[in-house]
Amino acid sequence: MAHWPYPHRVAIVATYLLLVPHSDAMAQVGRYYINTPVDTHLFTVTFNGVRSATWADPAIGDDTIQSRNQTVSLTYNYITSIHGRTGGFGVSLPWTSLLSYETDTDQVLVDEQDRGDIVLTFDYNLFGAPALPRERFRQHTPGDYAGLHFALTTPTGAYDSDSPVNIGANRWALKSTLNYSITRNDGYSWWDFYPSVRLFTSNSDIAGGGTLRQQPMWGLEAHYSRNVAGSAWLSGGLIASAGGRTSIDGERVEDSRRSLRLAVGGGFPTWPGGAAIVTYQNEVLEDGGASDIQHFMLQLLHKSP
C-alpha cells in the first residue's frame, strides 16, 4: 500500500463513513454524506433515542404530551456509479418502542413496540465525488463536493386509527436535501451545509375522524468537523427548522414552528471495515410551539466490497 501524508491518510479512513443511511430526523452531524468507492455494500444498525413533545412522528408537535421513542433500524445501502458520479440506493427497516403520555394527567396514551415506517433512499453526487473503484479511490484527494439526497418515508408502520398517537404516520413523506461540503486541507477538516425540505401527504384516518394535513418543513444545518486522534473526528453544529403548520379538516391545530438545535457528534473506526458514529442534539431556541426534542443516536456501520 502506498503511504500518504498524515492528513490524507486520515481523510481516506474517514471516507469509509460514506453515505450514512437516512432517518426522519435531520442529518445531525458533519460528514454525513462523505464519498465512498463504487460497488460498496453498506450495512448499518442505528439506535435512535428521542424525547419530545410530539407524536411518534417528530414533525407533528403537541405540547400536551411527552413521547419517548426508541428505534432500532437495520439499513442496507448500495453505492454505485450513475453517469460517472457516485450514487446510492438504500432501504431502512425500523422497529420502534413508543411511550406517550399526557403531561397534565400522566395518563398513558400508548405504550407499545412495533414496526416503524420503511424508508427508501436515493443519493446522487453533483460534483466533487467521481465514481471510483477502490484502488483509485485510495489515491483520490478529497475536495469540495455537493450532492442531492432523497428519503421517502412509506406508510408501512403500525397504525391504529383509534389511537391518538401511533408508531406509523399513515402518510407518505419525502425529504429532499442538498449537501455542500467544503475542505481546505485535503479532508482533514470540513464545513458541511445541508438545506432541506420535507413534504407530506394527508392522513385521512386519524383518531376522532377527519383528515390531517401539514405544510412543508424547511431545514438548514451547518456543521464543522475536524480529525482528532488519528482517524477519529469530532463535529459541532447548528440545526434550524421552520414550517409544518398542521390542520385537521381545515382547522388549524398547530402553528408553524421555528427552532434551533445544538448538535455535537463524532465518528471513529471500530473493526476492519467498520465504523461508529455518535450524535446528540438538543433544542436551544424555540418559537411557535416547538417540539422540545432531545435526540441521541448511535450508528454502527460495516462496509463490504
Describe the structure concisely.
The chain has 305 residues and is mainly beta. It is built from two helices and 16 strands.
Element layout with pairings:
Blueprint: H1 6-15, E1 40-52, E2 65-82, E3 85-102, E4 108-115, E5 119-127, H2 134-137, E6 145-153, E7 173-182, E8 189-200, E9 212-214, E10 217-228, E11 232-243, E12 246-248, E13 251-254, E14 257-269, E15 274-287, E16 294-304
Antiparallel strand pairs: 1-2, 1-16, 2-3, 3-4, 3-5, 5-6, 6-7, 7-8, 8-10, 9-12, 10-11, 11-14, 12-13, 14-15, 15-16
Q: Which segments are poorly predicted (pLDDT under 50) over 5 or more consecutive residues?
A: 1-26
Distinct helical segment count? 2
Percent helix, as a range, is under 10%
Structural class: mainly beta
Task: Provide the CATH top-level class.
Answer: Mainly Beta
Query: What is the string of helix and strand elements?
Result: HEEEEEHEEEEEEEEEEE
Round the mean pLDDT to the nearest integer and report it.
Answer: 86
Q: Give the total of beta strands.
A: 16
Can you tell me the number of structural domains?
1
Q: State the separation between the terminal residues, measured CA to CA.
A: 17 Å
Reported for the largest beta sheet, the result is:
12 strands, antiparallel, barrel
Shape: elongated
The CATH architecture = Beta Barrel
CA-based gyration radius: 20 Å
Strand proportion, as a percent range, falls in over 45%
CATH topology name = Lipocalin
Strand order of the largest sheet: 1-2-3-5-6-7-8-10-11-14-15-16
